[in-house]
């Protein structure tokens, strides 16, 4: 069956999870373009809330203030840019300061509940690709297609260094390795919706893949599942 027709008719959800720097966001974005459906970067919500706590000098124990910020945090996407309550935050959200704090914010149960609720609403607007840490396990456990991307730590760090450079940040490789290792550890070990592979997700090791290959692999897996009729709908 034609994949465009299928996603138009069925309102599909493609979940892409995995540790930092495995290329989830760019893969998700390109895949969504190819499928002509929405792309949502769930990490942007956690980063946006974190950024707001930093600029408003909110301490990690001021839970009520953090909850209030989370409730009022609304994001929209315009091409490559992410807007939070209509202000362009694309660069600010990627800073090392935000990366170093975001997993602590993401541990807070009520923050997760509010963001999860916001994320689920996108499905009402149509088919989507969403990337993050708990999309296939918690946000959309019934997602039609689930992928879990992994990659060697050195490759991940080098990719992240390049991303940061593209946003105008110069960061040493060892600092990045340190940051993503710590963040992965916190994301994997937290109590609330930890980063883990959903049992029915396809694991994709992207260490030796270029982005186009990753996108192609996911796209073909989706086509195959649709054509085999093994999708549960
Ligand atoms: O792209 P990268 O893996 O570096 O992370 P991100 O998607 O920008 O997410 C930043 C952080 O937000 C993660 O390290 C998690 O702590 C948190 N996050 C989460 O807890 N759940 C999600 N669905 C997405 C992000």
Descriptive keywords:
Rossmann fold; 233 residues; alpha/beta; five-stranded parallel sheet; binds cytidine-5'-diphosphate; 11 helices
Structure commentary:
This protein is α/β, with parallel strands linked by helices. The chain has one domain (11-218): P-loop containing nucleotide triphosphate hydrolases (Rossmann fold, 3-Layer(aba) Sandwich). The chain is 53% helix and 15% strand. It is built from eleven helices and eight strands. The protein has helices at residues 3-10, 24-35, 43-55, 63-72, 90-93, 96-105, 109-121, 135-139, 153-166, 173-189, 211-228; strands spanning 13-17, 38-41, 75-78, 81-84, 87-88, 128-132, 145-150, 202-205. α4 runs parallel beside α7 and α9 (153-166) crosses α10 (173-189). The mean pLDDT is 93. The chain binds cytidine-5'-diphosphate (CDP). Residues 20, 24-25, 42-43, 46-47, 102-103, 106, 132-135, 183, 187 line the site of cytidine-5'-diphosphate.
